[in-house]
Amino acid sequence: MKHRAIKRRNIVIGIGTAAGAAVVGGAAVGAQAAPGGASRSAKDLGSLAFDPGAYTELTTTVTTQNGEMEVKYRFWKALTYVADPVDVKYQSLNVSVPVEIDGTAVDASDAPILLANSIGGYMPSSVADADGVGAGGALSSNQLLAVAAGYVVVEPGARGRTLTNAQGEYYGTAPAVIVDLKAAVRYVRANKGRIPGDTERIVSAGTSAGGALSALLGASGDSRLYDSYLRELGAADASDAVFAVGAWCPITDLEHADGAYEWNWGTSPLKSGEQADRTVSEELSSQFAGYQARLKLRGLGGFGPLNARNYDDYLLKQYMRPSATTYLKGLSAADREAYLADNPFITWRDGRATFTWEDFVTHVGTRKKDAPAFDPFDLSSGENNEFGAGMTGSRHFTVYGARNDSTGLENRRVAGDIPALLDLMNPMYHLGKGNPGRSRYWWIRLGTDDTDTSHVISANLAASASGLGDDVDHLYYWDQGHGANTDPADFIAWIARVTGHAKRSGRH
User: Fold this and answer.
1) Residue 105 has pLDDT above 60, yes or no
2) Would you say 176 and 232 are in contact if contact means Cβ atoms under 8 Å apart?
3) What's the Rg (C-alpha) of the chain?
4) CB 180 within 8 A of CB 159
5) Taking the CA of residue 1 as centre, how many other CA atoms within 13 Å lie in the half-sphere pointing to its CB?
6) Coil, helix or strand for 455?
7) Which residue among 220, 250, 252, 433 is least enclosed by CB atoms within 10 Å?
8) Which range is least confidently modeled, 38-47, 67-76, 348-357, 399-408?
9) Is the Cβ–Cβ distance between 447 and 364 less than 8 Å?
């Protein structure tokens, strides 16, 4: 056994009453895991065998709205999840398993597994220097609350777009990051019976680009498109499907994101006060209209077919007005009166907020990105870098961006390998195919003030999953920006519900 000394970390976070129903008692489990493959021996797994004894025992104090909770957990650090890694610094993961909560022993052997990535901007992400669960990442509160609820937490690293080798070749651009995350899922699945937790109840989570990748994991489960990449890394021979998805402000559907952005924010000024190029904005907005029509999506709540002409009405009815209503109802009478006085564009009547789309966009204010937002003519975006290849750091990935290139490229065409890469990186592609290996449960969140991408990006993701019959929980946080996560306790309780853990543990 490789047990090491007990360490203590004190962590203070908020937790709502909804999560209180999931803690402590939610860790006691007894139901059998869903079918999904037999446990394998260490010999069968070779270098990918999880060593149950190679942990450090840590203690964390989590301060919640219901009081402090002391959580003792076992921590496995920097486990390489592929047999032939390109870069072990990034292709490794951490595992945290609670064993005692407030002095009561818990058994997490059949608990849900939260696979929480900390990827941002499609950049490299490493867990090698983490000193415990939730040590980094925009959504660290999710990991901490999950352990306090008795769940197993897996935090994977992954290669990212800026990595280069000694020859100057980029080895972390698309599709490296999603291949790595799939390999991490396969590692966990292959170690069923060795790694604690229910390997058939893996819930992915991430924010921004990490949110896009969490959604991509959910949409592309067991897709054969990734097989050759996974074989090259020596990934485990197991399923890479995940049970449920948590996606915060997902930066995704990149090949259509420029048009969606201009449809949404085309009239908004830049922070400098200047307007984006009107011709470019209008041309891209027109492209969005065609794309949206081709999707043939129907809105949630019985809204009907979604198109560029009615999407503003849909966003208002389904998301923005309910978001404002929830926010205002949560204020004291005096604070609500003051907020409405400062924001006269909102009509408050019979406990409901109403306003127009134009007034909402004006309320949000400036846009974060110029036009085009994701495939700019000068190849200056992180997304251009994400589609780099070989020794070329940045490439256009849309016909419009390539045709209007301003960097002096002789061939103003999209490279021949780009379309296939786009399919590998876009959850909408896999949902559009009705991928049978996809997740059936979706938690999607973002702030109403988030101008990092268009609001229709996550709304389309939700509508696409819902149209396939999946369970979708999607809402917007009022007056919150990029990366907001105001209801982490509700997310933890949602995991308990959709995985069946709340019922198995006697919590409802």
Assistant:
1) yes
2) no
3) 23
4) yes
5) 7
6) helix
7) 433
8) 38-47
9) no
- Paired tokens of 430: 């896999």
Place of tokens 């999506």: 297
Cα within 13 Å of Cα(28), Cβ side: 9
**First CA to last CA across the chain, in angstroms?**
38
Evaluate the CA torsion angle 338, 475, 112, 77 in order and state its sign. negative
Helical (H) or strand (E) element with 148? helix 140-148
What is the greatest pairwise CA distance in the chain? 69
CA angle 118–398–279, rounded 5-degree value: 110
The residue with tokens 């301003």 is: 406
20 pLDDT higher than 60: no
Judge whether residue 245 has pLDDT over 90: yes
Query: To the nearest whole number, what is the mean pLDDT of the chain?
Result: 91
Surface-to-core class of residue 208, CB atoms within 10 Å of its CB (0-12 exposed, 13-18 middle, 19+ buried): buried
The C-alpha angle 22, 501, 12, rounded to 5 degrees, equals 30
Q: Rounded CA gap, 332 and 309, in Å?
A: 37
6 confidence band (pLDDT: 50, 70, 90): very low
- 268 vs 278, 370, 400, 418, CA distance in Å? 11, 10, 22, 31
| 263 and 357 Cβ atoms separated by less than 8 Å | no
Residue 144 token pair: 């901490």
Q: Mind listing the pLDDT tens digit for each residue in 109-139?
A: 999 999 999 999 999 999 999 999 987 666 6
